[in-house]
Amino acid sequence: MISTSFLFFLVTPLINIYIYIYIYIYIYTVKLLSVLCFCLQTEFNDKPDSLFFNDGVRRIDFILAYEDEDKKDFEKRHTFQRQYFEASLMKMGMELEAIQSVIDEKLLFVKVHMPWDVLCTYAEVLHIKLPIQPNDLSSRPSRWRFLSCITKHFYPNEELITKETEFFTAPFEKDRLEYFYVRDKDVFFTASMRSRMAYYILSRAPYEIRGNIKKFGITKLLDRGVYKAAYPLHDSRFNVESKEEGCPNERFLLYKEWAHPKSFYKMQPLNLIRKYYGEKIGIYFAWLGFYTIMLALAAVVGLGCFIYGYRTQDTSTWSKEVCDPEIGGKIVMCPQCDKECKYWRLNSTCEASKKLCIFDNFGTLVFAVFMSIWVTLFLEFWKRYQAELEYTWDTVEFLEQEQSPRPEYEAKCIYERKNPITGVKETVPYTACGRCLRLSIGIGTVLFWILLILASIVAIIVYRLAAFFAFSAKLRAQDMKELEPLKEYVTPQMATSVTASLISFVVIMILNTLYERVAIWITDFELPRTRTDYENSLTLKMFLFQFVNYYSSCFYIAFAKGKAVGYPGDPVYLLGKYRNEECDPGGCLIELTTQLSIIMGGKAIWNNIQEVLLPWVKNLILRHCTRGPSEKVIPRWEQDYRLQSLSKLGLFYEYLEMVIQFGFVTLFVASFPLAPVLALVNNLFEIRVDAWKITTQFRRIVPEKAQDIGAWQPILQGIAILAVATNAMIIAFTSDMIPRLVYYWSFSVYPYGDHLNHTMQGYTNSSLSIFNINDFSNNSRPMKTPYNITTCRYRDFRYAPGHPKEYEYTIYYWHVIAAKMAFIIVLEHIVYFTKFILSYVIPDVPYAVKEQIKREKYLTQVVLHETNLKLVTKHGTGFLKEKCMEEDVRP
Predict the structure, then answer these.
(1) How many CB atoms within 10 Å of residue 121?
(2) Where is the Anoctamin dimerisation domain (predicted)?
């Protein structure tokens, strides 16, 4: 018998010869197709604003740009891949035209056009909704129509941006074209639809085949440098109106009525934004505009609360007692660190106590409750507004119909499984165990980075303790007057707080940059099926990290700092070395306000530098380095090539920036009523800056569908629920409001005529405990003690020396603790109950929108399905009659 190895020896050369012949035929087929492709290269026709091929008929739907490379080995492979890719595009029905740059001889552009038949095919594949008949439902008049003479000035110019006719729409079907409202084939598919379909094909066209492995997608070619850029065209220059026939000048109109600084007070032309950039960009600007409008109400109330606190800071009984030389001036406070710190007088914190009264007053309590209700109204009204946009922009059933797998997902599909819904076998990129492994690695990596943030927070806390001791020691070495507290106490405390906040901000920015790449890598490794799944997964990872990164230092100051410090005779130490940090003499609320101001302000400045200054500088340098003819003779595609490309996650960072801001506005608003005011001012600039950026500095974005704001919606709802608890706890544990209320109603009752009078007089003295300086331990005793004092005071509610329970908590302390817990429970239940009632009363979808959705579904059923059913019935009846006549039988 012939051995298996001998058979293998004979068959192997035959297999190799077959493979070589296949590769030979394959290469020459590709070369032939590439020759046909490059025969289309033409010269520039001196029409810089043209949006068409040189024949002036075929519209440009996409542009591919590449450089003519030297004939090196890897560059030959790039050329081969590019030629095969372009041949694949032509095989899929697309038409190409190559043209050389007017500036750089090595730079070439490939124009891509989709013929009518290809457009119809992929419109059906992507379930794009198109008009079937004009909307015949009468629209309800606006409630504010009597103010139209005033409000019209705050809307874009209707003569420039005209209101478009509303249509009922249905998913496109190529075989039923006659039932759709086609007036002109050239404008039936909008430019954004054409670009979206073109990108869909580009993402799935193969560029190389190796055995059973097919490599495809323009994304991979861009990453490998085979192509330098791929983008749809802007329809005109942003600052000059195009005179070319068939140019809608939508970019020019958007710049003039939306992105230009002089239009900052106008409402956004959302329908035109959606038409030009797609639903995903449109829904972002709709959400940002709605959030900004709602912030205006919160800003007015917050500003009123701030003005109330500012006006009453000098009349507050508590601040007056602190500043009084006969009260605060005679109270000697204990040192707040070991050995190096000195005694200080309470009236040294006069200015700090006045500033505290601006933020820590009864108006703050009212504002915190108001913001808890405000955030509920914001989310509920946004759901209604979003439902209107979903219907108007034809995205009601987007998630169910139009979500196609990502090219990266399809490329890794090698395992077969039975679909539990359809029962049909399909390919997936991983098994159940593989998916669990990928998710486990992702979760573990995210947890590791979150622990890394917590470690950095602990390091900053240690820095605060060491820095405060060092600043105090430095001032101790200086020759200062005894008990001059303003210079020798407040300076180290403020220096420590400010420098720690700045260091915290720098650490936050560094960790953000590092984690961003890690989060993208993890999400790519998990291989989500659709684009929405990918973005939701990345959103959750990034927000969990950013939440801990941005808010952890604020949570530390609000709920941990100064809460476990012991008392001067028995202080608490961190790591057995550093004495635990106490609050500023004015209270931890002032430090929390400082931290919020630095992080919010620094974040806004940094984001503006990244979003505006960097793209502008890059474009300026690029224009300077590639000097050539003026824009009047540079073609449209080359003008766009010189702009910056928006990253795949560009919109993701915009959402993340606003959601983090939303957290600052809601989670810690009880400590900083001006947060909504700062957010409002920032957002007014943010809208116009983002509009200016994407209109003038970036290439046109590939339009994408989006039904809503995605995973950000549940994140906002989670922040809203958490905000109630955090604000209640800030008022209870960080501010002095509850101790003051307990003192006012329980411990400050004096007879006044026939009734009892409540007063805040004496609160300062009652809130400070007494300590005998002889009870200091050797490790904590100050180096220098004034000869004329025997006791000092500290912030706590403990029995005085000599009492049977000396240095133990007083009954007042337990009253205050009980009041704090009761306040949190009552406030949370009241607010949560109110939120539940509001959520139930306010429907998510307006009644008028429900009517229109039902009407559209009815028309779709009548026009498309029932008409087809009648045809089937008619043909079926005719067939039955013919059979009966053949058999001579009555039907």
Answers:
(1) 18
(2) 52-270
- Tell me if residue 445 falls in helix, strand or coil: helix
Confidence (pTM): 0.82
Judge contact between 694 and 281, C-beta under 8 A. Answer: yes
If one counts every other C-beta atom within 10 angstroms of the C-beta of residue 126, the result is 18
Q: Residue 733 falls within a domain, yes or no? A: no
- Is 700 in the same domain as 752? no
Predicted confidence at residue 706, as pLDDT, reads 84
**Would you call 4 exposed, middle or buried from its count of C-beta atoms within 10 A (0-12, 13-18, 19+)?**
exposed
- Long-range own/partner contacts, residues 516-523 (CB < 8 A, 24 or more apart): 516/542, 518/445, 518/449, 519/446, 519/545, 520/649, 522/441, 522/442, 522/445, 522/446, 523/442
DSSP structure class, residue 255: I
Q: Which amino acid is at 346?
A: L
**What does the DSSP assignment read for 854-888?**
HHHHHHHIIIIIIHHHHHHHHHHHHHHHHHHHHTT
For residue 503, give both structure tokens.
Answer: 């260091």
Q: How far apart are CA 182 and CA 197, in angstroms?
A: 19
Which pLDDT value is given to residue 181?
Answer: 85
3-state secondary structure of 209: strand
Neighbours of 185 (CB within 10 A): 11
User: Do 746 and 707 fall within a single domain?
Assistant: no
State pLDDT tens for residues 470-493: 766 665 444 344 434 434 444 566
Query: Can you give the residue range of the structural domain that contains 45?
Result: 4-128+172-233
Percentage of the residues of the chain whose pLDDT score is greater than 70? 79
Which residue type, as a one-letter code, is found at position 3? S
pLDDT for 418 equals: 65
Q: What angle do CA 356, 361, 363 make, to 5 degrees?
A: 135
223 and 303 in a single domain? The answer is no
Instruction: Choose among 540, 552, 558: nearest CA to 659.
Output: 540
Q: Is 90 exceeded by the pLDDT of residue 232?
A: yes
Asked if residues 206 and 219 have their Cβ atoms less than 8 Å apart, the reply is no
* Structure-token pair, residue 650: 């560009």
**CA-CA distance, 429 to 435, in Å (whole number)?**
9
Print the SS3 string covering 640-704.
HHCCECCCCCHHHHHHHHHHHHHHHHHHCCCCCCCHHHHHHHHHHHHHHHHHHHHHHHECCCCCC
Residue 798 pairs with which residues in a beta bridge? Answer: 809
How confident is the model over 66-108, as pLDDT tens digits?
Answer: 987 665 555 678 888 899 999 999 999 999 999 988 888 888 9
Q: What is the sign, positive or negative, of the torsion defined by CA atoms of 778, 564, 337, 503?
A: positive
CA separation for the pair 664, 604 (Å, rounded): 12
Angle (nearest 5°) at CA 214 between 224 and 25? 100
Domain count across the chain: 3
CB atoms within 10 A of CB 42: 14
- The H-or-E segment that residue 758 falls in is strand 755-758
Selected residue with higher pLDDT from 541 and 38: 541
CA distance 732 to 729: 5
Place of tokens 């492979």: 77
**144 falls within a domain:** no
141 lies in some domain: no
Both 437 and 511 in one domain: the answer is yes
What are the tens digits of pLDDT across the range 815-835? Answer: 899 999 999 999 888 888 888
606 pLDDT tier (thresholds 50, 70, 90) = confident
**Quick check: is 117 in a domain?**
yes
Evaluate if residue 649 carries a pLDDT over 80.
Answer: no
Of 779, 806, 828, the position where a domain reaches its end is: 828
